[in-house]
Amino acid sequence: METIIVFKIGDECIGIDIRKVLEVTEVHEPVMVPQSADYVLGLVNVRGDVIPVLSLRKRFGMKGTEQSNVMLIVEDDGRVAGLKVDALLGTRKIKEGKIKKTSEFLAAKREKNFVYGIYEIDEKPILILNLAKALSKEDT
Prior knowledge:
- The protein is about 10% helix and about 45% strand.
- It is mainly β.
- It has one domain (about 5-135): CATH 2.40.50.180.
């Protein structure tokens, strides 16, 4: 991981390996899927491919709804999904060795599962998303 795409969910800055992001686009109203998990907002058609749209806000157990229509289309191990985010902040070059994988913040089970580590910078730290866990069907 050399470059990450940084986005916001609530007040948190979150980063994801740029190689996992297929594109950034706008999401319109997804088609609801009955009896799906609460973090699944529905399905959208992106150039002929139907993909699920996930709310990271709900997946993380945060209150409220996303503040924009920005969606990152991501792929991990053959699984493709759209992640609805509050704001796109841009890209950032990072050094893998500067990602801290142990922190008091990561002591909670939920954060430990969804966050790979914390990239500390002078501004607000960036949480590095564990995409495999976020896309997992398991309720971690």
